[in-house]
Amino acid sequence: MLADTTLLYQPNIRIAGNISSGTLWDVLNALAQIRLTNEDLVLEVMTEGGDADTARRIALEISLFIRDSGRTAYFIRKTIV
Predict the structure, then answer these.
(1) Which of 37, 42, 53, 77 lies 20 to 30 Å from 12 when distance is taken between CA atoms?
(2) What's the Cα-to-Cα distance from 27 to each of 6, 39, 73, rounded to whole Å?
(3) What is the pLDDT of residues 21-32, one digit of tens each?
(4) What does the longest C-alpha to C-alpha distance in the chain come to?
(5) Spatial separation of the C-alpha atoms in residues 81 and 71, rounded to whole Å
(6) pLDDT tens digit string along 6-21?
(7) Would you list the DSSP string of 34-59?
(8) End-to-end Cα distance, the chain
């Protein structure tokens, strides 16, 4: 288990604001960097909405990462999701 400070203050992916194609690319790039390390996925999310299809693609990429990497994923919701 990661320390509370890592979970709250040091996520390796942050999604903030509306979901867009830019958000997808940010997540894909961050996942590529995480794959190069031994790190678990720590995802912080605060979004008012946005493009639903892009959000589903992000969810798929995260699911594939979890399935294929064998690592633990932590999802931290801050204020709105």
Answers:
(1) 53
(2) 19, 15, 14
(3) 999 999 999 999
(4) 33
(5) 24
(6) 677 789 999 999 999 9
(7) HHTSSPPEEEEEE---B-HHHHHHHH
(8) 24
